[in-house]
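Quick entry, no commentary yet.
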Amino acid sequence: MEGHLLLEDEEEEEEEELQARAADDDGTNAGDSNYDGTVNSFNQCDNQCSDFGGSRQGNVDRSWEAPAIEQAATTKQEFQPVEVKEEFVDQSAIKQSIPPSRKRPFPDQGHGYYEYREDRSYGRAKSPQPPAEDDEEEFDETCVAIDTYNCDLHFKVARDRLSGYPLTIEGFAYLWSGARATYGVNKGRVCFEVKINEEIPVKHLPSTEPDPHVVRVGWSLDSCSTQLGEEAFSYGFGGTGKKSSNCKFQDYGERFSENDVMGCLINYDVGEDVEMSYTKNGRWLGVAFRAKKTALGGRPLFPHVLSKNCAIEFNFGQKEPWCRIPDGFTYIQHVPLDQRMTGTAAPKSKSECEILMMVGLPAAGKTTWAAGHAASNPWKKYNILGTNAIMEKMKVATQRVEWPVF
């Protein structure tokens, strides 16, 4: 029993001690660092700081006031009129600051001018519309004229079909452009004239380009290419003062250029040979070529011109002679029709035209096949559109350009 009493006394003492501690903590130990209550007041904050002189200083009255915000006075903004001053701008100074264009200016009219206007009208955004078939004019087939079917695609023939000029825009200025007449002869003494009307400006070509303006005139077979003087039975005399046949060039006569009139003469009445000679502005330059009649085999030779950036005009006899012609020669237009011979006939309609498109991998033999097919069908006069065809029209120092084969 005594053990139980002692336990009860101890329990009572512990309860009293706990009550005393609780009474002591009420208001006095709230800021103790060991306090684990849920109340957090300004006293706890003050007692934890030593600036207030101790841990038991009582409650501190604190309040929070919102800072005063000054409202900006709203003022009505007034707009004042501003005086605008007009200043004169010197347009000539602006034009001088603009770099000069490589195109021909508008006032300097000519073949290059019209070509430039056409190039501006049809930019990259749109392509020119093909001419309507109704616009094709009737032409007297008995007249000797430039054969539109027997000339390069980049040689532009005039409506009268007696004059023309090559394209000169951009890279076309590097190319030669040729054309033949519709009739040829294989007998008699025949002539025609060619006048160099204009050397078309090509300022976009580099200064290192040799002879940017050259014309070559002469005779060739209908089966020859338009590159006059660069294969057998093709005879030409150029403005550089050289004659050429089968790509062999020799000095002959003298140079000629813009506004000169060149007479081309052919004489079948000299025995077994055929003689070809030239005149410049009515002055005879001597015999340039002699060919065997047996080698020609009765095939006719046609008037032929090859131009590089020059506008030319023919006189086959439709006009009065421009210069004196040696006695005994007749303009080809005045030769009787039954003694003239036509070249390859053009298709009568577009339905008779033929287009072949080559499809294949690089180096598969497309160009080789196309060249062979064109050679086996010479009467069809195929125009092969490709890199090789363009390179054939470009020459360096009167020699054919040799390109490596990969």
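second:
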Amino acid sequence: MAMKALAKTAGALTTVAFATSAIAPPAFAAKKVVEIAETVETIDKTKNIVIPAVLAAGAIGAKVLMGGGGVKKQDFLEADPFWDQKTVPTNTFKNKAPFKGKVISTKRIVGPQATGETCHIIIDHEGKFPYWEGQSWGVKPPGAREKDGKPHSVRLYSIASTRYGDDMTGNTGSLCVRRATYWCPELKADDPAKQGICSNFLCDTKPGNDVMMTGPAGKAMLLPEENPETDYIMVATGTGIAPYRGFIRRLFTEDTPAGAVYKGQAWLFLGVANSDALLYDDEWQKVKEEYPKNFRLDYALSREQENKKGGKMYIQDKVEEYSDEIFNKLENGAHIYFCGLKGMM
């Protein structure tokens, strides 16, 4: 209920958008309604719907040491001025003519006690597939559908890196993907016949494997960077963290024009099952240490923490703890994003 009230109130303040690849986005009272696409894995009749919502957000930049010990700014893929969104690339590659990316690395990024497997996948696009933070890539898994022999449809995944990529060359992009499986109560094990087609393909990739891609898609999750004092509130469950990693790296980790002038506060809420399931915690802790006034971090660990009523601590419970402060920020021009499972709303 707290999250519903928050979304309703925030919707009256600024832009809100919801979308999935299969469901028409509901409308909220706002200046305009826009669409965001995020990962939707369909496993037989079981649908895991991921619904992002955005209202908007900020931070200061840090210089990053590149090869050879020299300092290289991340400023060669910027608009002029950097906050101008007129040139945002969209749908450069389409379903009938996708781009062939090549996997550089696929790494499990959760501990042994995590609920499921989540991987960080770095893909080489040779600088031919530019994107901005907050956009999504479409992935076409190989093979065909059993029911009609047609090619598998495109799945959308939020990009988990800045436009410069993890290597900051502008030639790569990253995805954060959880392997979708179905627990069969009769087998008392994961049913191999009911695995998520695309997520399993991506999590099984090896360096050098090809990935057919479309996009980039979406404009609603872009950072509104014109005002460097804007506060950003980012709410995520699981792999919904992906776009926020791009935001935070742009604002704090990489030497970007946006980060160089940022004076607001970026506040990240992440909900997962337990400590082993935390995503990119080392990165958040480093940013928190270096920018304590500009970056806040709160976790909701449902299997390790209790809410104020004695139940499991879910992301909506954690956000509710700070409801007064969040509403105050929104009333003063802050932007808030939601990305993750439908249940958190």
